[in-house]
Amino acid sequence: MVTVLKFGGTSVGSAANMRRVAEIITARKATVTVLSAMSGTTDALMSICAAARRGDQREQIAETVAALRAKYTECINDLLRDRQAAMELLHGALDKIGDAAAWYRSEVSEKLLIAQGELLTSAIFTMLLREAGHDAVLLHAPDFMVKTADGRVDMQAIQKKLSAAVNPAGNTLYITQGFVCTDAAGNIDNLGRGGSDYSAALIGAALGAGCVEIWTDIDGMHNNDPRYVSNTFPIRRMSFDEAAELAYFGAKILHPAAIQPCKDRGIPVLLKNTLDPSAEGTTICDVKEPDGATFHAVAAKDGITVVRIYSTRMLMAYGFLRQVFEVFERYRTPIDMITTSEVAVSLTIDDESHIAQIVGELQEFGTIEVERENTIVCVVGNMEHSTSGVAADILASVAQIPIKMISYGASHQSMAMLIATQHKRPFLQNLNDHLFPLAHA
Ligand code: ASP
Ligand code: MG
């Protein structure tokens, strides 16, 4: 059985953790191991790009490069007996990055630069495996992870290239980079922040894997955000659709795009903890039998802006919503939540880059209000439209807190509410206390 294991930034964030990863993948006989960059690297590289873009920021760039050099050198020293090749690689990459005046040209050079974290981390890790006597092969992700001209992943090409490169029958451990890919013009590109999960899902789908495992530093997906709420617990099993909603609405443990490729092919996704490999974690699959619980989990997504349109033209008119949506489409701004009445429509977005233009165009329809600093809270569970009392239970548990928008009935498994971010902590805690008796068992 082909298995694809992906390890996030903290899982490879130190020499000690990299050793744990080596133990896990050899014990699990992972076919392909997908690695993120050591924690903090991508942020650091992006700050270098931002500094270079602003112009003369030599000192700041030099400082960040020095910090990366120290971090990776320490890791290499701790991890490898023969360090020469790794150090050459490290210095080669960082010397080039430090010389921003020479490399900074455009977005193309920025993408090449922010790929270096994954490229370095995976190379060092492969050296560790080889020193330990394993047959380890480093696959260069840009060679197979390719995009089409319209910026989507090219599944057919990925499948063809990967199956030619990977022989799942032997004992070879294939190591590769998450996040990085190649665009249609052949330049290095990436799958967006947190995109390593997506890489793993695509690789699993391309190779027809028996499972895809996402290893992080927490014991699976929790029923609520443990950073804000006490008494949360890991969910053992959940459906692809629930996981997709939770990931999309703020559960940081998994990139939302990572669900679809596995769902399409029925490949279970396991969420596991590198720091506690024996913990059960969460299995995301086609859950056939309902577990009897009405509520499964809550997730929250901050940084939400509401755009409210009051328009008398909407009264009894058709085609109005289409015109409104077209404005957002023109500015490539996705809409998350929507509620409508006969004279008003409220929409939420999380990307404000074109808000000024969007509002400018919407003003043609009527009065526009924009409110920032909101949070979408999404409750998932069994919400079949034939059951009664589900929405009432949810609303009763947060009756003391103002709610700005409610979306219920779009699917059979979720209800979303919009609140001011300042109310997030008590809102989540109240939901947890009332909807999850298990949390207090
Ligand atoms: N290193 C990339 C990031 O920090 C990709 C990933 O970790 O998934 O966004
Ligand atoms: Mg991640």
Reconstruct the topology from this structure.
Blueprint: E1 3-7, H1 15-28, E2 32-35, H2 41-54, H3 58-79, H4 84-98, H5 100-103, H6 107-114, H7 116-131, E3 136-139, H8 141-144, H9 155-165, E4 173-177, E5 180-182, E6 188-190, H10 196-207, E7 211-216, E8 237-239, H11 240-248, H12 259-265, E9 269-273, E10 282-285, E11 295-310, H13 320-330, E12 338-340, E13 344-349, H14 355-362, E14 367-381, H15 390-397, E15 405-408, E16 414-420, H16 424-435
Parallel strand pairs: 1-2, 1-7, 2-4, 3-4, 7-9, 8-10
Antiparallel strand pairs: 5-6, 9-10, 11-13, 11-14, 12-13, 14-16, 15-16
Helix pairs in contact: 1-3, 2-3, 3-4, 4-7, 9-10, 10-12
The chain binds aspartic acid and magnesium ion.
Residues 8, 194, 197 line the site of magnesium ion (MG).
Q: What characteristics describe this protein?
A:
single chain; 441 residues; alpha/beta; eight-stranded mixed beta sheet; six-stranded antiparallel beta sheet; 16 helices; 16 strands; binds aspartic acid; binds magnesium ion
Structure description:
With 441 residues, this protein is of the alpha/beta class. The chain is 40% helix and 21% strand. The chain is built from 16 helices and 16 strands. The strands form three sheets. The protein has an eight-stranded mixed beta sheet, sandwiched between helices. Helix 2 packs antiparallel against helix 3, helix 3 runs antiparallel to helix 4 and helix 9 packs across helix 10. It is globular. The chain binds aspartic acid and magnesium ion.
